[in-house]
Amino acid sequence: MAEADPMIRTGAGTLTRADLAESLHRQVGLSRAESAGIVERILAHMCEALSHGENVKISGFGSFVLRDKGERIGRNPKTGVEVPIAPRRVLTFRASQMLRDRIVEG
Questions:
Q1: How many of the other CB atoms lie within 10 Å of CB of 64?
Q2: Which of the residues 2, 48, 55, 92 has an alpha carbon 20 to 30 A from that of 77?
Q3: β-strands 88-95, 56-58 pairing
């Protein structure tokens, strides 16, 4: 009986760093330690770019974009008291059309 494709996951679980490293190990044939190191280096590179204000775009997957949100007035829903919300930088993700199509196909 043929082994299932390691990239096809069942259930609604969570894909982890370990899962990515294991998939790399199986598909490319690197050692588990090398695979884990590559996953860590890729994620570290992405984090470094984002921390320096750069956006990250992965073709066919999506874009991680930094947005600066200005100060605004919010309201405490329990008391109704207005409170200022400080300006901040937020990270957003926009899936590529290819990824959105694959998600719809299920």
A1: 18
A2: 92
A3: unpaired
What is this structure's pTM? 0.74
Question: How far apart are the C-alpha atoms of 79 and 35, rounded to whole Å?
Answer: 52
Domain positions in the chain: 12-53, 55-106
> Which amino acid is present at 102?
R
CA-to-CA distance for 43 and 46, rounded, in angstroms?
A: 5
Architecture of the domain whose range is 55-106: Irregular (4.10)
Give strand pairing partners of 88.
Answer: 69
Integer Cα distance of 96 and 61 in angstroms: 5
CA–CA separation, 105 vs 62, rounded Å? 17
